Structures are given as structure tokens and as C-alpha cells.
Amino acid sequence: MKLVKARVTNYKSVDDSGWVRIDEITCLVGKNESGKTAFLQALNKLNPVEGQDGAFDMTTEYPRKRLNRYKREHEENPADAVSAVFELEDGDIGALQQILAGALRSPKITVTKGYDNHSMWKIDLDEAKIVRELVATAELPEATTLALKGVKTVLELRRRLEGLEDDSSQAAQLLERINAWRRDNPRNAFVDEMSHRLPRFFYFDDYSIMEGRISVPHLAAKRDQGGLTEADRTFLALLRYVGAELDEFQSEANYERLKADLEAASNEISDELFEFWSQNDQLAVEFDISGPDTDALPPLNRGTNLHVRIKNDRHRVTVPFDQRSRGFVWFFSFLSYFSQLEANDESLVLLLDEPGLNLHAKAQEDFLRFIDERLADEYQVTYTTHSPFMVAPTKLDRVRTVEDLDDEGTKVSDQVFRSSSDTVFPLQAALGYELAQTLFVAPDNLLVEGPGDLVYLQLLSDAARGAGYEPLDERWVIVPVGGIDKIATFVSLLGGNQLNTSVLIDVSSRDEQRIENLRDHGHLRRHNLIQVGEITGSDDADIEDLFDPGYYLQLVNGAYARQLKAKLTLKSLPKGDPRIVKRVERYFTENALGRFSHYRPAAHFSREQQTLTPKLSDKTLEWAGQLFIRINRTLTAAGAPEPETVRASGRKPRSARQSRQPSRTRT
Q1: Domain that includes residue 541, residue range
Q2: Which of 145-154, 162-171, 465-474, 634-643 is predicted with the least confidence, judged by mean pLDDT?
Q3: pTM for the full model?
Q4: Which of 323, 338, 353 is the last residue of a domain?
Q5: Are residues 650 and 536 in the same domain?
Q6: If we measure between CA atoms, which residue out of 306, 303, 301 comes closest to residue 321?
Q7: Which pairing describes strands 200-204 and 348-352: parallel, antiparallel, or unpaired?
Q8: Which residues, other chains included, contact 649 with Cβ-Cβ below 8 Å and sequence gap of 6+?
Q9: Residue 615: inside a domain, yes or no?
Q10: Helix or strand or coil: residue 381?
Q11: Are 490 and 459 within 8 A, CB to CB?
Q12: What percent of the chain is predicted at pLDDT more than 90?
């Protein structure tokens, strides 16, 4: 059976969650105290795995604001707490008797459980068809068949058969078949046949993590008295997985076998864990058994103690299991419990409450992969989170938002972006993170300060190619970062994604030192910091200084034709700065022309490139060729150009030279 939707009512903060569609993987997103845990806990009580509590308690779980009124009507009208719709699969229908399977009007059934702690099944059976099939297949005498004509219910069929004088073996067999159904009801026959096929719900949260030291007699006493915690159940599940009994630890004669069995299980579980754990592969779980620790507090000072420890080969130390590497401990504990359940070959629905709570962002991605690749092939998984790294941004159809609304209680919805900004924040953050990852679509990225630099590089590359010089390699993705102060952040981001990154900057001693620091710390390769001044031979140079000053003023005059009262000339610009852009900026400031945009001259160049490109000087083209050689040599090793294919001047060999006619480039 497959769970297709669920609804929680009258449970803690949930008055009525509404019907919630459940997929193979379902992600519940919401703020703390929004009701995510309550939804999972109620769903778990519908049919929990062995050992987990499936009873609803009116005093502790019914919504307090209506509890007093409900107490008066509880006995006569117990409230429903959880309903779930399941869809029968081929194996389920095949397991039904042929008559019952043929009478199903719908493959979907609804199971409801409330504060009377009885399950109610809603099944759409065509009982008249069941009666017809029973009579048709019983091979009754013709007179008996005629006497049963018009019967529509199984109860009426039994009464008619009992009232007939027909004592044939066929009639007796038919009565025996009907009487075999509980209360002579085909719906009960359906429930009896399908109840063991109903999926079990397995709820796991942070309280289920195994402890580091366990008193065997104390744990045995808690088991016998029904006082086990979730952490206790996890450890007992591990024992069941290896086929060991808790009482065996009381005898020293079993020491070596038990330790060997536990370590073998630990190795098996760890091997599976490390397929999806990229944080540290030098961890291992070890077990040891000792007598009472007289210096410890009760109950560890009496009887046999079992020690569970994490060994870190990198640091050559072991620490108690529950005191270090919390994320690893959670993952190992979950796999221990889950492995035992999986070995039982039961149909399971996994309910994971905040599974990434103690995991690093990268480990959360690992766990999502674990859900997709390991769990979801066999089991449905529903988990809660408020972490953006536990939301798959390309699979938002999995997401349900959970909100605690005034006067309505907890509501669960698949209309994810209709919820409050706080509720959908993890989704927005996940989408932002995904966007940051997908901005860079190639292994080689060239960071520049602004969009004007991108336009100049594209246009100069076309012009250099037309003049026979080395152009900018097409494998580069040019990334404008919005200012030199943002370059350091982008270098760190791309470096963390193992992408090759080069940076083209204007000269500034302050910003250069910041980039140098990134390079020194391994985020930027030694030769991937490129300064325009390397090409122009100047201590201070912008990309605009590749142009002749008079040519660049043509671009400025064209871009600002409406704002300028007179065309700019070199004589009209302030003196004192070798960079042409800085002199133009000062002119705009001193003449109250507003802020000078570096991009507008580049945009004018792009619009008028057919006219302006042929006017580029040989010096500009040669410098452009040299700049592109310098940039291209920082490509990843597999794509780097061979040294003999270009000359120091930046010009290709004569046979490769082309016409200087420009090609039009979209920017």
C-alpha cells in the first residue's frame, strides 16, 4: 500500500491540518513551534513500528483550549486524531480473495484513528456484486439459486441460506465461507486480510540517538517495566539487528562473541554510512564491555556497562559516542535502528523529525542524497526542516509549508509561496543558494568588476580576432561582480566549488592586497590575478586605458551627447591622474553633471561597433591581444593554449591572420 494523503485533527497544536498530499519524499517546512513535529507524531500513531507508542492520550495530546468541554463528550463521541488515505498496489489486490478484489470500486482506502484508539477503515466495496459472485461460484442447485435471487447483502444471503431446506454440500460450503468472515462481513474480511499489509510508521528524532554508556541491568529493568526511552529503543534495535539479547551481556562468557557481533554490525553500518558521508571518513564506532564503575553515578556503578565510543583515526583518540560529532552520531543511530527494521522486511513509512539539525550544510546535502538514493527506492519518507540546505530547490513539489495560524491552529499546505515570509524563508534561501551555484556554468570563470568590463572584453576580443591577434578563449564565462569590493566574496564562492577562477582588476594597492590574501590561502591560483597595468606598463590602469585617450573620449561624448554642453577633449579634463576614467569622473563632479557611469560608454561602443571598431588603433589591438594571451594561459590545464601558437606581441602567426573587419557581437 502507498500513502497518498494524510490529515491530523484534534492533536496538540493541530485543530485540523487539512488534507496533505504525501509523495515518495515529502518535506515539511516551517518555523519552530509551528506544528511540524505534532503532525509527524500523530501520523506515527496510526500504525507505529513495534516498540513505539501508538496510543492517543486525551489529557496530554488533545488541544488544551478545548479539553474541558471534550472531557464531557469523550466517552460517547471520541474525537478522530489522524486519517490517512492509502492506495492499494497490485500485490495488495492480488492478496485479496478473488471475490473481494473484484468488488472494489476504488483502490483507495481510508484508515482513521482517534482517542478511543481503535482504527476505522473506509472501503468502497460493491456488496451486491460480492453476493452475485458468491452465488455464481458456489455451483448451487438451480432451485436454491432461484430462491436467492435479488439478495444484495451478505447478511441477507446467510439468513436465506439458513432458512432453506437445501442441505447440499455446496450450500454448506457457501455458508462456511461466509461464516469464516469476521461477523459475516466482507469488509471485516478485507480489513483482516489487509491489516498486516498496512505500512508501519517509523518516527525518528534527535531524542533517538544512542547513549555513550549503558548500564545493562538498568536498561533491562526499564524494558521490563515499560519505561524505555527512544535512545534505549535505538540501542535495542541494534542488538536485535545482530541477533543478540540484552541479558547475554550479564555473562562474561559471551564477551568475545557479543563484541565481535557488535563490531561486525558497526562496520557494516559504517560502510553504508560512508557512501553518503563526505565530512570525515576516519571515524569508526567501537564497543566495549566492563564491570561497574564505582566512581560513576547510578546506574553505572552497578552491574555490567556497555561502552559505545567513536574512534577518530586522524587524531588517534576515542570519545564517548554521545559527546562528539553529533551529526555522525545521529546518522549512525538512525542507520542502526533502520537496519533492524529493514531486516524485518516490513512496509515502512519513514518520519524523520529535523534530520539535518546537527549536520553541516554539506552533510545535509549528503543526507538529501541518502534519502533520494538509498531510502526513497523502497520507502516513503516524510521529514521536517527549517534549514535551506534540506530543501531541494529543483524539487519544490515535495515541499509542504506548516504554519500555526491564529484561531485556526496548525495548517499544512502545498501552496508554498502563499505562506508567511518567515515560513518560506528556507525555500527562498535554498533558491538563492541554487542560483548562486548555477550562475557559473563553466569550469573557467573570469571575474571582472562590472558589466562595462564584460562589454569591452567581448568587443575587443572580436576586434583582436579580426586583426589576427589572440582573442579571448570562448570557454571563459565572464562574471561581473558589481564592484571590486565583491570580488573577494565571489573568489571564495567559486573556489569552494572547485571552479577555475581568474580575476581581471584595475590597480589598487588596497584591493590588490585583499585579493593577494585570497590567493595566499589557496582560493586563487598564483598567476590567476591579472592587472591591466601588466599590459599597459603603468602602475595605475583601468581597462579603459587600453584605448587611446582621445578614442575613449569619443565613447564618452557619444554616450553623454545630451548631457554635455560641449564635447570633452583632453585639454578640458583635470590633470593629475594617469587613468582616463578618473579624470572624466572628476570633470563630471566639478561640473555638476552627476555621477559618471562606466557602463554607458561601453554600451555606446556596443551599439555603434560597426562604425567604431575599425577606428581602434594598432596599439589598442596589440595590447588587447597581449591581455587575452595573459588571461587564456590561466585556463584549466586541459584547455590552455600551446605556447607556440601565439607570439609575445599577441599576434597569431601570419597564416592565421584574418581581415580586420569587425563581427557584430550581442552583449
Answers
A1: 444-656
A2: 634-643
A3: 0.68
A4: 338
A5: yes
A6: 306
A7: parallel
A8: 622, 625, 626
A9: yes
A10: strand
A11: no
A12: 41
